[in-house]
Specification:
Number of helices: 4
Structural class: alpha+beta
Length: 221
């Protein structure tokens, strides 16, 4: 952990979707390791390195809100696009009035986290962790990013800043131990390109969640 980083992220709303609820969006209680990794990669990433999330500190009390939103219920079929490219006259369209669906979302309000993570090298260039750490901290301090970091959904943007020194104390409501249940850790890609979700039992102690390594026995498919 000599080349680890700490990043404070916060935002007005967040939704880290639980996959078991399918079309209805229901958020986990806190940010998932995969969402935390995505935030770090939005600020700095190279093929030579892989981000590993070690710890998540939850600073604000966990508050849920419910909203209902109009969404389009399906995507444009690829076959329609292919046909239009071939004949040049077939319509490529979705009639919103016919495809509109109203869906409920259970989201988080007023979130704030500290993400503690480090790099693991993927090739020789990735072995220079000090260089990558310096670049990351410089970019984070200047607010630079490859794309806008978000809190689970792109419509919920994340503010961020590097954290130097002792982490802030969590809200008093987070004191004690809490079992958050099985939580998505990350997705693993096989040689054939198929994705496999990995889960772990998330336990929060005084606002701190220790994230086990992806390949450890605590992580299940």
């Amino acid at each position: 952990m000599s080349y680890g980083v700490s990043l404070k992220v916060w935002g007005e709303y967040a939704c880290f979707t639980r996959p078991e609820f399918k079309s209805e969006r229901v958020s986990y209680d806190v940010i998932t390791p995969s969402a935390a990794r995505g935030l770090l990669e939005a600020i700095y990433w190279k093929p030579a390195i892989a981000w590993v999330v070690d710890r998540i500190r939850v600073l604000n009390s966990i508050c849920f809100d419910t909203v209902r939103r109009n969404e389009v219920g399906h995507k444009l079929p690829l076959g329609n696009v292919t046909k239009a490219m071939r004949d040049g006259v077939s319509p490529v369209e979705i009639v919103v009035e016919e495809a509109r669906q109203q869906r409920a979302t259970l989201l988080l309000r007023d979130v704030c986290y500290v993400i503690e993570a480090h790099f693991e090298p993927r090739d020789k260039d990735g072995e220079n962790s000090a260089k990558h750490r310096d670049i990351f901290l410089r970019r984070a301090a200047k607010g630079q990013c490859f794309h806008g970091p978000y809190l689970g959904c792109r419509e919920f943007p994340a503010c961020f800043e590097p954290l130097d020194g002792a982490p802030p104390q969590p809200d008093d409501a987070l004191r004690g131990s809490r079992d958050l249940g099985w939580m998505l850790h990350d997705l693993v890609y096989g040689q054939d390109g198929e994705r496999e979700a990995r889960f772990f039992r998330a336990r929060m102690n005084d606002g701190v969640i220790e994230v086990p390594p992806l390949e450890s026995a605590e992580v299940r498919a």
